[in-house]
Amino acid sequence: MVYTPGRKSFTAVAINTAAKAGEWILSKLGNYSSLKTKYSPHDLVTEVDQGSEKLIRRLIQTHFPEHSFLGEEGVEPGPEASAKAVESVMNDEYLWIIDPIDGTTNFVHGFPFFSVSIALAYRGEIIVGVIYDPSRDELFVAEKGKGAYVRGRRMQVAPQQKLSESLLATGFPPNRDALGSNIKGIQALVPKVRNIRSAGSAALHLAYVAAGRLNGFWEIGLNAWDIAAGALLVQESGGLVTDTAGNPYTLAVRNVVASNGHIHDELLSELSAANATGQ
Ligand code: IPD
Ligand code: CA
Ligand code: CA
């Protein structure tokens, strides 16, 4: 990793920024004034999402004005537009990838499971990932090659070896074209695992896989900002992240499978057998 002398480290800026944004979001819980829909009636945005992104952008650009920035609220809604936006910047030298509130529906309803997700990629490879859950004051941090931490403790994925011993999570994407695949996956997997959760923040689900609280997570139809920071957290905690066909994770992946590694092949083959890979 390249550090410029005399400047704050990338990770320090990511942590500070996520903490500030998260604190501000929490102060606005139950107190937003504008609620709009974007691509579909399930795709919500408030002025708090936009304000959080502005705050994050301002803080990051203060330290690294020459870096590129990809934030959910700066991109046209919808799967095609977001795929194009990712493609246009994914090989930039330094790229910050931001979800200013992951779990906006939860934020709107006062369900305390939402997060700020901040990742930094160097030529397409994630080198820093930070996810902050302000409701629990939990900060998840990973640096490429240096491990991942929560509350200052090194994280390790869960030890379970079999799908039948697993607690999984998934989500319901606002793009309803992807929903059918997710439902097929749930139908096939529920009888085969201990249980499945869908708590409404893909970023936090990934952080929970890293922390060993979940054995695996999959979702069809996500965006780069939902996955980027969480993918590094899982990898640096000893887990595995691929697309639903088993290809290695890249910023272009939208159909994601993350696990403790042990159950990965079983999970991939169940999704494939159920025609639930989104491909
Ligand atoms: C959503 C959340 C949710 C997932 C959706 C995402 P947003 O992000 O991560 O858990 O199921 O697919 O779009 O819109 O709250 O940032
Ligand atoms: Ca999101
Ligand atoms: Ca969001």
Strand arrangement, major sheet? 3-4-5-6-7-8-9
Hetero groups: D-MYO-inositol-1-phosphate, calcium ion
Count the E strands: 14
Helicity, in percent? 25-40%
Q: How would you characterize this protein structure?
A:
With 279 residues, the chain is an alpha+beta fold. The chain has eight helices and 14 strands. A seven-stranded mixed sheet has the order 3-4-5-6-7-8-9, sandwiched between helices. Strand 6 (125-133) and strand 7 (138-143) form a beta hairpin. Helix 1 (10-27) runs antiparallel to helix 2 and helix 6 (202-210) runs parallel beside helix 7. The structure holds D-MYO-inositol-1-phosphate and calcium ion (CA) (2 copies). Residues 49, 72, 99, 101-102, 104 line the site of one calcium ion.
Brief synopsis:
With 279 residues, the chain is of the alpha+beta class. It has helices spanning 10-27, 47-63, 79-89, 104-109, 179-189, 202-210, 224-236, 264-273, and strands spanning 35-37, 44-46, 68-71, 94-102, 115-122, 125-133, 138-143, 147-150, 153-154, 167-169, 195-197, 216-219, 240-243, 256-259. It has a 7-stranded mixed β-sheet, sandwiched between helices.
